[in-house]
Amino acid sequence: MIDFQKCAIIGCGFVGSATAFSLVESGLFSEMVLLDANPDKAEGEAMDLSHGLPFAQPMRIYAGTYDDIADCGLVVITAGANQKPGETRLQLVKKNVSILKSIIPQIKQRGYEGILLVVSNPVDILTYAAWKLSGFPAKRVIGSGTVLDTARLKYLLGEHLGVDSRSVHAFIIGEHGDSELAVWSSANISGVDLADFCELKGESSYREDLHSLYENVRDSAYQIIEKKGATYYGIAMAVRRIAECIVRDEHGVLPISSFINGHYGLNDICMSIPAILDRDGVEQVLDIPLNAEELKNLTASAAALQKVLDDIAP
Ligand code: 6V0
After folding, report:
1. What is the pTM of this model?
2. Among candidates 208, 232, 198, which has minimal Cα distance to 22?
3. Residue 236, exposed/middle/buried by CB under 10 A (0-12, 13-18, 19+)?
4. pLDDT by residue (tens digit) across 62-117?
5. Rounded distance from Cα 197 to ligand 1 centre (Å)
6. Are 108 and 101 in contact (CB under 8 A)?
7. Ligand 1 centroid to 115 CA: how many Å?
8. Which of 4, 55, 181, 300 is buried deepest, with most CB atoms within 10 A?
9. Cβ distance 152 to 220 under 8 Å?
10. What is the pLDDT of residue 92?
């Protein structure tokens, strides 16, 4: 029996602990299980978070084992290494795929029936690997994808135009990484076409501005890592939003990473395309309209991901 008031976080480093904090603050769950390869780390985080419960909603937070997660509605995977200086992306992929190989079979063995949310990087590759390793229906295995990148775009565009970022509607799609793209053709400010809105605001050079905004979004993680060593608050808040869609059965539209097969002529890959998300996972991947350049860039993004999948194939 799935308990949608219960979640687990596997990997309690920067991202896992910030995510745990954000989910405690959300009040979405009544039980949270923390797991880490270093049990002391999970236990320390559980103690620290539990001490804040008099200021939050009642819940149980504890360091557990895989036996404790079988009935969770949501399992979030944040275990995995960050890229180290001198390490290639491919080496990191191999390291994190092998970490997944130690996690997913444990979950599968317990007959887990909830949603698996992969956050560790490279998130699209690891979402695909988690789906393959689990054998779960594709709709139940998702990645955080470009939900964070889309939030970064909304924030930067909102700042640029002097409007609340929640009034900005635009997507970053494709790989969560260097080949991602902004879908400007359908971007709007509360229903007002972006180009029209820029003109209303007297933004004459908006096309060049939009490109540098996109570059800023794409390179945000590098900038933050250079300044503070890791990124974790933004992604933790993005995970909370994804969790809301699942736990509250919201049918929300988010650019999560999911299995793409037959969309835009792309097959057998995980990447971010906006999708309707509810308790059962991905209800529908939405082939939103793209112009010719966006379609070309999305196809190139899929090809970049496919190359990594080919490189790591056994
Ligand atoms: P971190 O602080 O090194 O934490 C990783 C944690 O994973 C450590 O506590 C490890 O002990 C633990 N761990 C390692 N192997 C296992 C295992 N087999 N089982 C359980 N726990 C294990 O890294 P950080 O938290 O900064 O990053 C974690 C991952 O998130 C990395 O892959 C990042 O690249 C990725 N991020 C993904 C983002 C996204 O938007 N999807 C954003 C930021 C970071």
Report:
1. 0.97
2. 232
3. buried
4. 999 999 999 999 999 999 987 676 676 667 899 999 999 999 999 999 999 999 99
5. 40
6. no
7. 19
8. 181
9. yes
10. 84
Report the alpha-carbon distance of residue 62 to residue 68 in Å, rounded.
10
Q: How are strands ordered across the β-sheet holding 275-278?
A: 252-254, 275-278, 281-285
Atom number in ligand 1 closest to CA 35: 20
Q: Hey, whose CA ends up nearest to atom 17 of ligand 1?
A: 37
Q: What's the CA-to-centroid distance between 22 and ligand 1, angstroms?
A: 16
Q: Quick one: which atom of ligand 1 is closest to the CA of 144? A: 41
Residue 92 CA, closest ligand 1 atom number: 32
For the Cβ of 123 lying below 6 angstroms from any atom of ligand 1, the answer is yes
Q: Please pick, among 51, 169, 176, 251, the residue that the annotation labels catalytic.
A: 176
Ligand 1 neighbour 41 (Cβ under 6 A): yes
User: Rounded to whole angstroms, how far apart are CA atoms 285 and 276?
Assistant: 7
ipTM of the complex: 0.99
In the block, residue with structure tokens 């960050």: 82
Q: How far is CA 222 from CA 149, 229, 278, in A?
A: 13, 9, 32
Q: Is 160 a catalytic residue?
A: no
Cβ(148) to ligand 1 under 6 A? yes
pLDDT per residue as tens digits for the range 117-170: 999 999 999 999 999 999 999 999 999 999 999 999 999 999 999 999 999 999
